[in-house]
Amino acid sequence: MRVVVDYDLCESNAVCMGIAPEIFEVRDDDFLYVLDEHPPESMRAKVEEAVQRCPKQAISIAED
Amino acid sequence: MDRSHTTLVVGASLAGMHAARTLRNGGHTGRIVVLDADRHTPYDKPPLSKQVLAQGWGPERLTLPAVDEELDLDLRLSTRAVGLDLDERTVSVEALAGPERFEFDTLVLATGAAARRLPGTDDVDGVHVVRTLDDALGLRAELEARPGRVVVVGAGFIGAEVAASCRALGLEVTVVEALPVPLERVLGAEMGAVCGRLHVEHGVDLRLGTGVDHFDTVPGEGGRRRVVGVALTDGTVVPAEVVVVGIGVSVTTSWLEGSGLTLDDGVVCDETLLAAPGVVAAGDVARYPSARFGQSLRVEHWEHAVQGGEAAGRRLLADLRGDEPQRFDPVPWFWSDQYDRKLQLAGRPAPTDHVEVVHGSTEEFRFVALYGREGRLVGVLGMNRPRHVIQLRALLDDGASFDEACARAATL
Question: For residue A30, what is the domain's CATH number?
Answer without folding.
Answer: 3.30.70.20
